[in-house]
Amino acid sequence: QVQLVESGGGLVQPGGSLRLSCAASGSIFSIYAMGWSRQAPGKERELVARITSGGSTNYADSVKGRFTISRDNAKNTMYLQMNSLKLEDTAVYYCYQDRVPRVYWGQGTQVTVSS
Q1: For strand 109-113 and strand 10-12, is the pairing parallel, antiparallel, or unpaired?
Q2: Fewest CB atoms within 10 Å of the CB: 21, 42, 84, 93?
Q3: What is the pLDDT along the chain (115 residues), one digit of tens a residue?
Q4: Nearest 5 degrees, angle CA 61-CA 87-CA 62?
């Protein structure tokens, strides 16, 4: 059974930084693409960043140049470094593992950007 556990969320001021982590268990971590999505109140969930098993990455336009996704296969952990945070980055952030045709999700971690 796949289990994904996010951590690292919290309250930060605009312009600040946070690093989210997603620890995975129950699967062969290194062979699957993984990513981060977020959902703000009243909005649909949107893809934030994705990283393939080979390390290729892509990002939503809204976070390009500010967020960096990475993975440590030895630790079965994925990260999202978020810099220059904006008010509109406030959301619940979810990590996922892409095991086509099924996608597994974590429980989410709250990120609040506020002055």
Answers
A1: parallel
A2: 42
A3: 889 999 999 999 999 999 999 999 877 888 899 999 999 999 999 999 999 999 999 999 999 999 999 999 999 999 999 999 999 999 999 999 998 899 999 999 999 999 9
A4: 0
For residue 25, give both structure tokens. Answer: 């268990």
Paired strand residues for 22? 6, 78
CA 27, CA 83: separation in Å to the nearest integer?
30
Check if the beta carbon of residue 5 is closer than 8 Å to that of residue 23: yes
**CA-to-CA distance for 35 and 53, rounded, in angstroms?**
11
Q: 22, 34 in Cβ contact below 8 A?
A: yes
